[in-house]
Amino acid sequence: MLRLLTLLTTLISFATFSAPKSELWQYWDSSNEESTQTIAHQSWQTFIDRYVVVEGEHHLVNYKAVSQADKRALKQYIQALSSINPREYSRAEQYAYWVNLYNAITVDLILDSYPVKSITKLGGLFSFGPWGDEVIHINDKALTLNDIEHRILRPIWNDPRTHYAVNCASLGCPNLQTSAFTADNTQALLEQAAKEFITSTKGVSLIEGKLTLSEIYDWFAVDFGTKQQLFEHLAQYKGELKSYSGKVNYEYDWSLNDAK
């Protein structure tokens, strides 16, 4: 009976999974472009330097090796960001703030449940992952990871490269970058992340004329425009797609981005 319940729960979770729409949370659509204040992300950079491992086309996290002190430091970094009012900062500072916060919270959630085979195992009994759970309070407002990605980052910046910036702790996901985002390096990092993903087999695989794309391009097709616009985007980094006109398959690997 337990095995049957587990199977049914898994099937329901996969069947009901769908990518949230981009719907602006108006409250967060505010900034101070005259501000010269910066937000410190050195704690997050230190964590990345210690525990992100580059193996081939994957950037893996050595979750098992994270010390108790560094787990506490990560939580302190997240807490520090939660005490900031991002609306008082420039748009450039805000973007780095939200991306780093999203990625740090994701890693923290994995560490709290480690060992775990996939982030999709987190969340409630009938949940597909933790994305709908309240994970932080900012300005006395409770936020989920879905809020950060789909109600703040996507609708405010309207940049499809955001999908290469936020990391879902899975092998199929665009890599967790080896540099924390800052107002100064965001554009360079977004370009780097896009190139890494599109030239990797997990992003775009063209073998003997058969094209397989990451399901990101199916789930968030609206962000990349028409099929022609999508291929123009992909061709910027993988030129052989300029003239592709055949069938497209989609795949995604939800296995944890764990450094063994």
UniProtKB/TrEMBL annotation:
Domain DUF547: 87-198
Domain of life: Bacteria
Signal listed as a keyword: yes
InterPro entries found in the cross-reference section: DUF547
Coiled coil spans: none
Signal peptide interval: 1-18
Keywords from the UniProt entry: Signal
Name of this protein: DUF547 domain-containing protein
Record organism: Vibrio agarivorans
